[in-house]
Amino acid sequence: MLKKILKSYDYSLIIAIVLLSLFGLVMVYSASMASAVQRYGVESDYFYQKQKLYLIVSALIFIFIALFPYKIMKSTKFLLPMVGFSIIGLLGLFLFGQVRGNAQSWYDFGFISIQPAEFVKISIIIYLSAVYAKKQAYINKFNHGVLPPLAYLVIVLGLIAFQPDFGTALIIGLIAGTIIISSGMNIKTITKLVMLGMILLSPVILVLQDEIFSEKRLERFEVLNNPFKDELDSGFHLANSYIAIGSGGVNGLGLGKSVQKLGYLPESHTDFIMAVIAEELGVWGVSFVILTLGYIVLRGIYLGLRCKDPFGSLLAIGISSMIGIQSFINLAGVSGVMPLTGVPLPFVSYGGSSLLQLAIAAGILVNVSMFVKYENKYKHKHPEKTSNHQEGNVYQFRT
């Protein structure tokens, strides 16, 4: 049995995740060398050493989650504590949270800083996937099948918006939207849900309009047209990102030889790490990151489509959408397609919370892939033992 299970893991997916994480570790070292000394007054390998520690811990978590049967997570005994801890964690920020980037969204424990909203992304994926998988038989009954699970989502989005961290709230909303669309609801039900969402969102926008439409946030849109018009102030980050990307060309300047990381890109090892990759490794480095991320996302969606269990299917699609959405927002911000939001590049950017959260997500995705492959092999060899199980599955689930 153990031998069959080990053979069933999707090793191509595991290799892609490992390669991207190790590549990110190297680039964090290269991108943070100068800023560690100049801006933070620490050793040049300070962020590298911390990221290496995060990566080791993340690897252990990844292995544990990958061996942990994902179906256990849909039980009420798992879901209720997860939801409770998520809400308590977000509420506690208003009393004990540290302000970073104009948002009170971090707990500082000295040796590590934790952003609860990162882990809420996973809890939203697990919760909505579990509840909507259970409600497949009446998924289009609006008051009974659709609305109840969204109470948790509304509470979470409200708490994050009032930090205020609209970027993370947007990402969680998009992830939830992907799961909802993939849950099997018909167009009529989804249309009702969108209209209700717009109605509920209107008073929130009215209350937070000064924060949402602040002068600083509006500048982020204005600077997209021409960051060089005010390159020493509002356009500073984007202008230097353009210079870094343009300087790299096809082959790049060489690993460790970026000029823009020498104080011109203040967040060179986090938000703008792709700009450093482009400058040092050129088109080849950028292509490696985008293709590897693309493979992970598409592989996850493929697994979700193949999975016969609605819970596993929604988990795979939700996790894939999270990685894809965060990747797109980061790359779009660095390249000036959309305003900067401070979203890290998955598996590549520096950050403990992000890496630990991604380790959990990747472990779940790999575990789902293992069950998909194992069950398909088992059913193929022993169809008579699984016929009853197949009849009991909810096959009206459609993506």
UniProtKB/TrEMBL annotation:
TM annotation in the entry: 12-33, 53-71, 78-97, 109-133, 145-162, 168-186, 193-209, 281-302, 314-334, 354-372
GO biological process, one term: peptidoglycan biosynthetic process
Record-level GO cellular component terms: cell division site; plasma membrane
First-level EC class: transferase
EC number: 2.4.99.28
Location of the protein in the cell: Membrane
Chief location bin: membrane
Catalytic activity: [GlcNAc-(1->4)-Mur2Ac(oyl-L-Ala-gamma-D-Glu-L-Lys-D-Ala-D-Ala)](n)-di-trans,octa-cis-undecaprenyl diphosphate + beta-D-GlcNAc-(1->4)-Mur2Ac(oyl-L-Ala-gamma-D-Glu-L-Lys-D-Ala-D-Ala)-di-trans,octa-cis-undecaprenyl diphosphate = [GlcNAc-(1->4)-Mur2Ac(oyl-L-Ala-gamma-D-Glu-L-Lys-D-Ala-D-Ala)](n+1)-di-trans,octa-cis-undecaprenyl diphosphate + di-trans,octa-cis-undecaprenyl diphosphate + H(+)
UniProt xrefs under Pfam families: FTSW_RODA_SPOVE
Function: Peptidoglycan polymerase that is essential for cell division.
Family: Belongs to the SEDS family. FtsW subfamily.
Descriptive protein name: Probable peptidoglycan glycosyltransferase FtsW
Organism of origin: Neobacillus niacini
